[in-house]
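Design a sequence for this backbone.
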């Protein structure tokens, strides 16, 4: 997903759609205009500014690992795009878990953009979604994540400067976050999970097709 395609209903980031879009060979949008690490568009001749990078994980598990690594580097915009792959591939029972995690990442983007209202709104959405899960689920430290959302939102409501607040490390348990297609599973899948073309919880009951990479 490109920066122009991010849905406000999902994660609270909106950008102005481009009137024309370059397309890759596989039909997906190509974002020719450079963007900074928070996803903001920059002039074409921009130099000396860290830019977002395109990431092409080969599996859902790789997307999760990449999303966590980018999160640890405070590259929350890129992290949220990688984690959306996990969300889209998850079974319906886990969809709110991964969406809540994504919304935490997007709250981090809003903090970096000095948008306290946007950050507070996303933190509350994330907290509400994550609070429905056990203390630890799929290797996500849910209790830690929920508490962090509450603390950060309270700080924003007190008027603290967003630039002084941090989302912190990815909320993983000691064994690390992991993905499974099976909602009854107690551990990682044995085989890598292909990246689906559409969210699993939308295509439930229809045959799943893996995204073509050639």
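Sequence:
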């Amino acid at each position: 997903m490109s920066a122009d395609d991010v849905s406000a209903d999902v994660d609270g980031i909106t950008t102005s759609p481009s009137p024309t879009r370059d397309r890759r060979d596989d039909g997906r949008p190509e974002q020719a205009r450079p963007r900074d690490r928070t996803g903001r568009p920059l002039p074409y001749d921009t130099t000396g500014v860290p830019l977002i990078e395109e990431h092409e994980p080969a599996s859902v598990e790789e997307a999760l690992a990449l999303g966590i690594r980018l999160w640890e580097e405070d590259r929350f915009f890129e992290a949220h795009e990688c984690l959306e792959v996990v969300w889209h591939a998850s079974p319906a029972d886990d969809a709110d878990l991964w969406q809540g995690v994504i919304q935490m990442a997007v709250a981090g983007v809003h903090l970096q953009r000095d948008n306290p209202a946007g950050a507070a709104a996303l933190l509350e959405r994330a907290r509400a979604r994550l609070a429905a899960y056990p203390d630890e689920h799929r290797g996500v430290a849910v209790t830690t994540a929920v508490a962090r959302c509450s603390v950060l939102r309270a700080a924003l409501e007190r008027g603290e400067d967003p630039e002084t607040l941090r989302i912190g490390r990815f909320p993983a348990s000691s064994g690390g976050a992991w993905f499974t297609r099976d909602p009854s599973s107690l551990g990682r899948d044995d085989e890598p999970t292909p990246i689906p073309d559409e969210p699993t919880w939308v295509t439930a009951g229809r045959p799943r097709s893996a995204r073509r990479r050639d």
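DSSP finds seven helices and four strands in the chain.
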